[in-house]
Known about the structure:
Blueprint: H1 2-9, H2 13-21, H3 25-29, H4 38-50, E1 54-59, H5 67-84, E2 93-97, H6 108-124, E3 129-131, H7 139-152, E4 157-161, H8 167-173, E5 180-184, H9 199-215, E6 219-223, H10 227-239, E7 248-252, H11 257-265, E8 270-276, H12 281-290, H13 292-304
Helix pairs in contact: 1-12, 4-5, 5-6, 6-7, 8-9, 9-10, 12-13
Bound molecules: dihydroflavine-adenine dinucleotide.
Catalytic activity: L-proline + a quinone = (S)-1-pyrroline-5-carboxylate + a quinol + H(+)
Protein name: proline dehydrogenase
EC number: 1.5.5.2
Amino acid sequence: MLGSILLAVSRSPLARRAVSGFPVTRHVVDRFVAGEDAGDALSAVQRLTDARLSVTLDHLGEETKDTRAAAETVKAYATVLDALRPLGLGGRAEVSVKLSAVGQALDHSLALDHAREICAAAREAGTTVTLDMEDHTTVDSTLSILRTLREDFPSTGVAIQAYLFRSEADLRDLSYEGSRVRLVKGAYAEPASVAHQSKIEVDKAYVRCLRILMEGKGYPMVATHDDRLISITELLADRNGRERDGFEYQMLYGIRTDKQEALARAGSSVRVYVPYGDDWYGYFMRRLAERPANVAFFLRSLRSK
Ligand code: FDA
């Protein structure tokens, strides 16, 4: 219930102004966001890769209807990718892109051109791009952009959301050699006509999707902090003869860092999704919606100031 309210609030411009206006909010946001600029992002990359973790950098921002802002986002990715190049980390430091931040809501082909520019910059830096998945109205457009991008940039990956009814079919289509798919539960408020609503149904759907991914020929990126799903991944990897480098775990910056490090120490590939930038509102509210305890933490911080 609280989660649905927070997800609704995450799209309200009025609430955005109110929440962003609290002076202490930044302090709380810092738990989930690596900093405001490319320099902060690179410090996080250094810290995490030193701890044997891989990263995917997300320049925060979404749902823009402003062509200038979309072009600025492309520039921000080019800047961070350029700065990554001399570090020589290759695919250990890739980027994640929300197509709505590069113009998807304005024009499908503008978003494609922008995504292509980011993929070209990633290739120059010796790495690649994964497309985040946003609300269900964008899935067809995102998968179509993915198909086109992969003609020139075959390592481009995509996130698929287990809560959507359509996702098992999408995963079968994506289970070919060379495909890179990040499986997530799904973080948006979706109607019952397109998505499972209860946690138990979403978890069951995740397992069905995971089975398709692990049995397929692509590279599974298992993005969850859920211990039960991590155990099931281990079983499915064994059953399908996948070595440690045949799949990876992905978790969010600031969430279950002990688990991230423990998995990496045990020999698993683990990638941390590192958001940075000042447009943190939508991302932050989705993190609050996932866990009521985060809301309590936020409210406590407000009270203690
Ligand atoms: P679940 O929410 O059941 O959490 C399991 C446990 O993890 C909790 O009990 C708690 O211990 C911990 N946990 C989870 N969320 C937490 C939080 N916010 N704060 C503190 N602890 C928390 N979604 C999407 O729609 N499109 C996308 O492109 C992506 N991309 C993406 C990349 C990566 C690397 C990850 C890990 C996740 C995403 N997501 C996403 C978000 C995803 O859909 C989902 O909302 C979150 O991962 C939470 O789901 P869990 O699988 O972790 O399970």
